[in-house]
Specification:
This protein is an alpha+beta fold and 387 residues long. It has ten helices and 17 strands. The chain has helices at residues 3-21, 39-50, 91-98, 112-120, 198-209, 256-264, 279-288, 299-310, 320-326, 370-384, and strands at 28-35, 53-58, 67-74, 77-84, 101-109, 126-135, 138-146, 152-157, 170-171, 183-192, 212-217, 228-235, 242-249, 268-276, 329-333, 336-342, 353-360. It is globular. The protein starts with a helix and ends with a helix. The structure holds fe (ii) ion.
């Protein structure tokens, strides 16, 4: 066999091996469910402020007596907002303890029973055994496991379903339809875990979900004068799902991760990064809609940007003055650059926030911006008296 023939055999073997290793093939993020105190008002906020569209509804009118859920979409993103309707609902316990936040990160799979079997046999704690739900549009199979804190991964199999969302939901028609803001898909979702818990959860994602540690940042890279954190990015086999995991590190003052853990009363989702193709247009609109962002980095930050890009021979396609006026940050690596900005927390507890990100080739998470970002967060912490 010639050299080309061997190369083909090796390539094929590699692909077979890769396939065998990915015991949990994930097609993408299906939806993210928040438990909130008042889903009706939260839905209005996500429509008005972030440009989400009314999609599906379940409540008293559809026969759901104990809770109500609103589903919102924007391009590939689906958010579900759920509120209990009586004091007896177990959802109340979550809200009392954590405040509004992410309960479920639902993952789209080909075979939910298999995903449940593979993960529980590797040590995942069960949240929901495989459950079939049906209506006139077909059937959906869902199963779930617990991850950090009270957060859950639900596996959603919808290949035999052609309804709007899930059985039990009706299409949500609304006369109030504000324009979209150009948000496309979930780029990554970050979890904050307690002291010495990062590596525990890194191992959990490796062992139970078959993820790989794609990038790591230690407290020497991510620190300011006052506080520090450590972060490891976990990615699934096809790279569609990325979960960075943060833990606090020792500093002179209380880090933002500790503040989160105190107010969330435990581990949970810290931020959801949503991608756009035009961050200048998206952030312009979000600001007009009243979305609050962290303060703009100082003048020196923007002065250093051309050199940072030049170091990797990248040319900025956007107008730097527009980026500065909107407070958008820029980071670069060998493969390209990225543009990003962070909102303030979207509830009264300083817990969950959003990131808006536009990737121009870069695969990183903005490590070059961490210092500027944390100093901005520390200014907010100082105002709250929690630094
Ligand atoms: Fe992020």
């Amino acid at each position: 066999m010639g050299r080309l023939g061997w190369a083909l055999v090796m390539y094929t073997l590699e692909k077979i091996f890769e396939g065998a290793q990915d015991f949990l093939p994930l097609l993408g993020t299906d939806y993210v469910e928040f438990y909130v105190g008042n889903a009706k008002q939260a839905a209005h906020f996500y429509k008005t402020a972030f440009g989400f569209q009314s999609h599906a509804y379940r409540g008293l009118e559809t026969g759901s007596k104990d809770s109500v859920s609103y589903v919102l979409t924007q391009d590939k993103i689906k958010l579900m907002l759920t509120t209990p309707l009586t004091s007896k609902s177990p959802i109340n316990n979550y809200i009392v303890k954590h405040g509004d936040g992410v309960k479920i990160i639902a993952l789209w799979v080909e075979d939910a029973r298999q995903a449940y079997k593979e993960t529980t046999s590797r040590g995942a704690k069960s949240y929901m055994e495989p459950t079939v739900e049906k209506d006139e549009h077909g059937e959906v199979v869902r199963a779930g496991i617990y991850t950090y804190g009270e957060t859950v991964h639900l596996f959603v199999e919808r290949k035999n379903y052609n309804g709007a969302f899930l059985p039990g939901f009706k299409k949500w028609e609304s006369d109030y339809n504000p324009p979209i803001a150009g948000l496309k898909y979930i780029d990554h979702m970050v979890g904050n875990v307690g002291w010495n818990q990062m590596d525990v959860w890194v191992k959990w994602y490796e062992d139970v979900m078959g993820f790989e540690n794609f990038l790591s940042f230690d407290d020497k890279q991510i620190h300011t004068e006052y506080s520090a954190l450590m972060s490891k990015v976990m990615s699934n086999g096809n790279g569609r799902i990325k979960f960075p995991i943060n833990e606090p590190a020792e500093g002179k003052k209380r880090s933002q991760i500790e503040e989160y853990l105190d107010f969330n009363e435990g581990a949970g989702v810290q931020h959801i990064a949503v991608a756009t193709d035009d961050i200048v247009a998206t952030v312009t609109q979000l600001r007009l809609n009243g979305v609050e962002f962290l303060s703009t980095p100082p003048e020196e930050y923007y002065k250093a940007v051309p050199d940072r890009l030049e170091a990797f021979s990248h040319e900025l396609r956007e107008d730097i003055e527009s980026l500065k006026a909107l407070g958008i940050m820029i980071d670069a690596d060998e493969e390209g650059y990225l543009l990003q900005i962070f909102t303030k927390p979207v509830e009264d507890r300083p817990t969950l926030f959003f990131e808006i990100i536009q990737r121009m080739g870069a695969k990183g998470f903005g490590a070059g911006n961490f210092k500027a970002l944390f100093e901005s967060i520390e200014r907010e912490q100082a105002k709250r008296g929690t630094l």
